[in-house]
Amino acid sequence: MAALPRLGEDDVLAVPVGTGGELPPFLTSPPFGTQPPVPVRLLAGALADTGNTGKPGVITNLPVPGRRPRSVVAVGVGDGTLPHLRRCVATAVRRAQTLAEHGAARLVLPLDTALAPAGADEVRAAVEAALLAGHRFRVSSRPHPPRLAGVTVVATDAAGPAVAAAARAGEVTARAVAWARELVDTPSDTKDPAWLAERAVERLAGLPHVTVTVLGPGELAAGGFGGVLAVGGGSASPPRVVVASYAPPGAGAAHPVLVGKGITFDTGGLSIKPTAGMREMKTDMAGGAAVLAALDAAARLGLPVAVTAVVPAAENAVSGSSYRPGDVVRHVGGRTTEVQNTDAEGRLVLADALAHARLHLGATVLVDVATLTGAMKVALGARTAGLYATTDGLADALRTAALHAGERVWRMPLDGEYADLLASDVADATNAPGNPGGTTAALFLRPFAGDLPWAHLDVAGPARAGSDDAEVVKGGTGYGARTLLRWLEAGAPVDPPPVTTD
Questions:
Q1: Which of 39, 231, 346, 443 is the most exposed place for a label (fewest CB within 10 A)?
Q2: What is the DSSP letter of 169?
């Protein structure tokens, strides 16, 4: 294990506790040897007294008067898997953050456990979890509580190039996800389509090999974005479409395009939501935030793949110019939709963006992310996204990326048997065919992807959280950004892996 830094009296030391109460070997080896920060017998006794058997996230706090560091937190790391490690790190960070109010300045976080030394994967997961668990969004007149000055992660081979690269990737990823969370959590009296576009330009346009184009109402009308214009037509804040492209030298022919729903507030339109259904609708642009964050991280990491993020941004409001049930909307490319419910607006703006990416941006594969249907939250709960895909290879690649990222997905059936529910007497399809809502929404979107490999992530559940849980924090979660980034890091594969035989 790399040498622990000198521990000061204002430091908090986190001790990972494995299954069965196993303590890590560093407590009885250099630099501690026979002088650990807390006697091992005392620590073992405290674990027994508090019932801490190493279950992930279970914590025992031991103040150490007159010693350095002043406090030790023993946190369960379970079997040392990446999900267990993320929970352990997040718990330690939150506890240390509360101790910052009493003078703690830094958390020292050794990652080695009694089971295994830490490597690159563990370091990346730990850095991401530490930064994300400590993230908070506040708009308050009260002073912010004291914060930790820093977190020091200690690994077996901290000087190795793979570990150093993993630490940097973890930091870049976490900061991109934190940006997505801030976009999601910003109240809608500030966040309108123009504001969202300005934030994208502000953060992304100065990055190497990145260009950002913002389409305003005139360009949208000229480009045939009938869905975006209809949904945004009732608001005093006109819609925008953000197109951010990262094109590094030497990138291959693959050009994945990520499309994210960017509804900056959703009243439901004339099919108005009840108050309870409207309270969290500042988060209805979480898909747009996720794809922008993924592109941000890809550019900062210098990934060798060209990628574009498209965010159709609109406010679904109520006024005399709102679109109506019974209207027929013409999308990019000419396909038409009969509006039956103005609260099924997300699919209308995604339809335009998918068609634009296919017809005008040279996309070779499409992935969209959207807080699209309440049905998906009912089906899969608040921590798992529904994954629809037209090819097994793309579905498997995204599931693998999600597994590495620590984000849960579940593949849903894209069954043609429900296609008849989309039938309209006056248009190519209707926008609100009814149950099963998640599947019919995906089937509505599918034609706009044409023959390209396409995947749809319905993140209505995990895009927002009602409480802290591991590295997820209450409010916007930035869900999807890490999965998309891991997929891009793997080269954005769409084909199934080759089958080998002995």
A1: 39
A2: H
